[in-house]
Write a structure and sequence with these properties.
By secondary structure, the chain is of the alpha/beta class. It has a single domain, classed as Aldolase class I (TIM Barrel), CATH 3.20.20.70. It is 38% helix and 18% strand. It contains eleven helices and twelve strands. Bound molecules: the ligand NCc1[nH]cc(CCC(=O)O)c1CC(=O)O.
Length: 335
Amino acid sequence: MSPARLAPFPFSRPRRLRRAGWIRDLVRETRLRPEDLIWPIFVMDGVDAEEPIPSMPGVSRLTVDRCVEAARRAADLGIPCIALFPYTDASVKTPGAEEAWNPDNLVNTATRAIKRAVPGIGVLLDVALDPYNSDGHDGIVRDGVVVNDESLMALEKQALAQVEAGCDILGPSDMMDGRIGIIRRALEEHDYQDALIMSYAAKYASAFYGPFRDAVGASGALKGDKKTYQMDFGNTDEALREVALDLEEGADMVMVKPGMPYLDVCRRVKTEFQVPTFAYQVSGEYAMLAGAIGNDWLDGDKVILESLGAFRRAGCDGILTYFAPQAAELMEAAI
Ligand SMILES: NCc1[nH]cc(CCC(=O)O)c1CC(=O)O
């Protein structure tokens, strides 16, 4: 019904629907549940240890055994899926990023350990070369250029090693052209029909990824920026084209990234395609909120749930967020 057909004041009084908690609950249009969240976790080498990430207060890199504990905690909280990102030492980075398809690299090892110990939780892995590439880029660099088609061959090998390790959802985050089609074909050829692909379809070249690059140890390696493959923040029609291509190539779900500054893109994608649509509340968004919460400038419990609820209102089915366990605990406490 259009607002024009509402009775005029005083017969319409919108505040009637806001008078008390029970009526607000009854007419709420969107809801946030722990089941809407994916928790990104940083994996590092070692045993029974963790290392705080200075630009992400409250987030630490975890050794594989601690990742297994985190997966248990997620499952207990009703969080259906975790995403794993490796902190890779400079010594394993090469121009060809070969570590990306090492069956025993950190994320593959962690995936096997988690699927063994907590089989009911979903594991999502990034398909992109940046943690393994001495150039810090998501693709292979030749003469200063991130070359598309050669990168696809590397991404295909990486994706196959990841599903082989037991990964449930591949998250190609590299923004090379044609990557979804190449990966989907490879999965079919190797009998991995059930492997899900959540493509980072509309991924913008963003300053909000800064703390993540510290977390995975890529900041030092990266020369220049990622503007020749990640999107220009001035565009949204282009986001729809990227989503359309990824769906045509075989993506099951799509993602918009970053999140909160891009809610208009989330809404357009959901309205246009009606496919499972996710957003990534990225490291810089986390850092902004965690920094302000830590200084008591914002009320943490409230702002975490409001920021995540906004994604649901914008049409997102789910959100990748470093606040996942905290948010799930807050939701549990509210029941
Ligand atoms: N391809 C790597 C990747 N996968 C997820 C993020 C960012 C996540 C975050 O900032 O939380 C990035 C960084 C980048 O593209 O430079």
